[in-house]
Task: structure prediction
Amino acid sequence: MTTLMPEDIIFDENQDDAEYLGKGMRITIGAFVVIPLIAVAFAIPVAWGGWLSWLDLALAVGLWALTAGGITVGYHRYFTHRSFKANRAVKITLAFFGSLAIQGSLDQWVADHRKHHKFSDEIGDPHSPWRFGTSRKAIAKGLLYSHVGWLFESDNTGIEKYAPDIARDKDLTWMSKHFYIFVISSLLLPAVLGGLITWSWMGALTAFFWAGLIRIAFVHHVTWSINSICHVFGTRPFQSRDLSSNVAWLAIPSMGESWHNMHHVDPSSARHGVLKGQVDISASLIKGMEKTGLVTDVRWPKPERLAKKLKNPEDRFRLRGYQPE
Ligand SMILES: [Zn+2]
Ligand SMILES: [Zn+2]
Result:
């Protein structure tokens, strides 16, 4: 296995997409991500009224928002990058909803993600899509590996080394150790709610399917897309030392995490969508929590500082809150 350094990759600064990927390969990779979504979209009208109800949909959307937010605001922006400060109750709530996304225990997630930032697209990155090389075949293999394959690697990132703050926190260690409780809860909760509200086994079953299985798969795919798609395709307005990129169509499902090029340039920023028009639901949630006093010391981006990191200086006028001197 050869692992590439970003400087080894022949990369055209002015070319936003990975041009070395042929059309056929792009379609194949796109299909891998899009076909499950289309299948679900088609299944909705077919199942509607029988195998799918308004209740299933409401439970699925509600649990999606809570668990996706638990990952983006909790696991990622708070626990990994410390973009703001929170009291114990808020900390536990964020860890609770993040754990319900079933993306692994909090301590392991944080350690893996910090290692990703430290070695981004270089040797040591747990999930770089560039690890097998730059040929078409290698990128396709790398995309699959960074999307899901890396999760099955047995060499876990050292928690003591990369997440000592989490390891020292008794609440978070307990929640990480008892991760299985959240796995069971995340699967059972929709079934119990669906069953009790409709008072039927059928209601329990359909809620389990839509608000349990489909919701979990959806949040998984979106998070993994940040590791795969957002290091290969998209735009790179900022000068980062890796191949992270911004992917607009993933902004809403990922709650703002797909402004990933900016995130690698300023990892502790509470907002990733810093250019005008870049929707960032997680940043809006943090803003709301700040206004209600739930969180403090939020690290909002500094436009003047970010302006220096733009490839094209003219783009500084697109930065939110930029004041021309
Ligand atoms: Zn990244
Ligand atoms: Zn990050």
In short: Residues 1-20 have pLDDT under 50 and may be disordered. Residues 6-318 form one domain. The chain has one domain: 6-318.
